[in-house]
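Retry 2 of 3 after timeout on previous attempt. Resubmitting structure tokens to design endpoint.
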């Protein structure tokens, strides 16, 4: 895979790099994406499983689906794409990592200060009083845990369709998109808003926008550079080429 020289050049001059990731970055860890042909939404209905109405209608089914996914995530390991992004945090004066993923694999790969736009799957809170829940989650017969404070139902701390994103997280992500020099969109179909707007904000503000995705997305014809490979392959190659590029110019001086 060829890394465009213009990208290496922009990275060498960059003070602030922003990286937005989606489910594709965890695909090589064995975690299913949503909208790929073998993704979760090919098998399950998002309105039934990832919305407040779905939870209200069938809390036990939603809860047990999330419990299953927590198990998958706990048995998964970060892949070379997650590690390359953690490494990038050391290479640039500032790197903002924004993820739509709920799996915490960026944290486990060593990334610092991850902005989680859609929450995370490993924490839970009360649907009614919002109090965090730290009790037993694995109850028999698909039973839902109950809030010790108000008796409300416990839910996963993710963002469902129709719910607001955590305000601080969205503001920080928008600020990064406005101010970064290079913006990476990695492993996302860029179909879910407001996250899908971030690369557009970055490009309008003058950033060099790069997509890392083996498939074509709504963003592909809009970006300045496309690395058309799985992120676990493309990002380590990018890092290697960037180091060579920097060394070449350092040696000239
Ligand atoms: C690889 C790879 C490899 C594969 N390497 N790549 C404006 C316009 C239209 C609609 C809206 C709008 N604003 C808001 C909306 C409504 C809605 C929305 O966007 N709907 C669209 C679907 C049209 N948004 C919301 O409701 C959001 N809330 C909100 O905006 O509140 C204010 C508001 C409310 C009501 C009305 C208006 C405003 C909340 C969105 C919450 C999303 N939640 C989910 C579930 C989280 C919990 C869980 O995990 O169960 O988040 S849905 C799901 O999609 C999940 C993901 O984070 C999100 C994005 O998916 P992602 O990551 O892009 O995955 P995929 O599968 O789509 O793509 C994977 C990509 O990887 C593919 O491109 C592959 O090619 C690639 N790939 N292998 C690299 N190895
Ligand atoms: Zn409660």
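Retry 2 succeeded. Sequence:
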């Amino acid at each position: 895979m060829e890394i465009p020289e213009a990208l290496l050049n922009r990275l060498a001059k960059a003070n602030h790099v922003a990286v937005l990731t989606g489910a594709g970055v965890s695909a090589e860890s064995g975690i299913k994406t949503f909208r790929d042909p073998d993704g979760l939404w090919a098998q399950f209905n998002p309105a039934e499983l990832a919305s407040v109405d779905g939870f209200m209608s069938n809390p036990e089914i939603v809860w047990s689906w999330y419990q299953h996914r927590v198990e998958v995530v706990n048995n998964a390991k970060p892949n070379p794409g997650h590690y390359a992004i953690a490494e990038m945090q050391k290479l640039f004066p500032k790197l903002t990592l924004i993820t739509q993923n709920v799996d915490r694999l960026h944290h486990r790969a060593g990334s610092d200060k991850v902005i989680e736009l859609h929450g995370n799957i490993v924490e839970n809170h009360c649907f009614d009083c919002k109090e965090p829940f730290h009790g037993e989650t694995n109850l028999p017969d698909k039973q839902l845990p109950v809030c010790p404070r108000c008796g409300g139902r416990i839910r996963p701390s993710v963002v469902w369709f129709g719910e607001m994103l955590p305000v601080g997280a969205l503001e920080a992500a928008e600020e990064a998109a406005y101010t970064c020099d290079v913006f990476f969109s990695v492993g996302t179909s860029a179909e879910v808003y407001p996250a899908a707007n971030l690369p557009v904000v970055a490009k309008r503000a003058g950033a060099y926008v790069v997509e890392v995705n083996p498939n074509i997305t709504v963003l592909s014809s809009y970006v300045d550079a496309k690395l058309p490979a799985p992120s676990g392959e493309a990002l380590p190659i990018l890092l290697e080429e960037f180091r060579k590029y920097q060394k070449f110019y350092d040696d000239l001086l």
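Attempt log closed. The longest strand covers residues 119-126.
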